[in-house]
Amino acid sequence: MNFYKYQGTGNDFVMIDDRADNFPAGDQALIARLCDRRFGIGADGLILLRVDPDYDFRMIYFNADGAEGSMCGNGGRCIVQFAYDLGIFTDTTRFIAVDGEHTASVSDDVVSLKMSNVTGMDMQQDYTFLNTGSPHVVRFVDDLESYDVVGVGKQIRYSDTFKPGGTNVNFVQVMPDKTLFVRTYERGVEDETYSCGTGVTAAALTAYKQFGLPSPVSIRVLGGQLRVSFEETGEATFESIYLTGPAKQVFTGSATV
Ligand SMILES: N[C@H](CCC[C@H](N)C(=O)O)C(=O)O
């Protein structure tokens, strides 16, 4: 089985050109094995690029545990770069994912992806919950560098409040220069990843609401830099949300599992 490996700010994916529609998408154990960093290729998730009659392509995203996930922003940016590398489009593209239609553009390995509109936020005392294509908790903390992201993230992800689906959890520090530093515990990977696109999108919108940070918001994650721009069109309702940052092919190979 031929595969490609892509990464976007260190969020890494096994990418499969499945235009022939023959990858066994229901084989959760196989997908988990391919994503395993010791027994397989190693990745935070696996993405299929399939044909769709109404769009340039269809994106199907699986978390590293092998189950189909909700929207993945960095995976979306990576599959756009992949479709570009395959010659499916030249400047801008329109594709379909689990949360609906997306448009995107590519220039010099930087991909700008239009995210789904956000239609509300649940602002609690010590966290905000919102859906940016995937469910996210955003919590502001001091000294994020030394924060126990995995320990506290796991507690929130498995807490009764978010059952049965669970949630991704973002810890966010507002820096003196009004940029954000974000670290994310990801559901389905069940660990901290180097970057989460839907997560930084959630962080940017929450920072705007809570601290008035204007669009575009610059964000540092463990794996690099991202930018999120947006327009507020109603109370906690956002449109024209764009996630922008690098996405690159890392290697190609053939899996024998
Ligand atoms: N890494 C992804 C998020 C994946 C969401 C996934 N962990 C789920 O909750 O199904 C991103 O860049 O947006």
UniProtKB/TrEMBL annotation:
Gene3D superfamilies in alphabetical order: Diaminopimelate Epimerase, Chain A, domain 1
GO molecular function (one): diaminopimelate epimerase activity
Active site (record annotation): C72 (proton donor), C196 (proton acceptor)
One Pfam family recorded for the sequence: DAP_epimerase
Keywords for the protein's UniProt record, in alphabetical order: Amino-acid biosynthesis, Cytoplasm, Isomerase, Lysine biosynthesis
Subcellular location: Cytoplasm
An example Gene Ontology biological process: lysine biosynthetic process via diaminopimelate
A GO CC term assigned to this protein in UniProt: cytosol
Catalytic activities: (2S,6S)-2,6-diaminopimelate = meso-2,6-diaminopimelate
Site (Could be important to modulate the pK values of the two catalytic cysteine residues): H136, E186
Protein residues bound to substrate: N11, N63, G73, N74, N168, E186, R187, G197, T198
Residues spanning the signal sequence: none
Top-level taxon in the UniProt lineage: Bacteria
Broad class of the protein's primary localization: cytoplasm
UniProt KW Oxidoreductase keyword: no
EC number: 5.1.1.7
Coiled-coil stretches: none
The protein's annotated pathway: Amino-acid biosynthesis; L-lysine biosynthesis via DAP pathway; DL-2,6-diaminopimelate from LL-2,6-diaminopimelate: step 1/1
Root EC class: isomerase
InterPro entries: DAP_epimerase_DapF (IPR001653)
Free-text function comment from the UniProt entry: Catalyzes the stereoinversion of LL-2,6-diaminopimelate (L,L-DAP) to meso-diaminopimelate (meso-DAP), a precursor of L-lysine and an essential component of the bacterial peptidoglycan.
Family that this chain belongs to: Belongs to the diaminopimelate epimerase family.
Protein name (Swiss-Prot/TrEMBL): Diaminopimelate epimerase
The species this protein was found in: Arsenicibacter rosenii
Gene that produces this protein: dapF
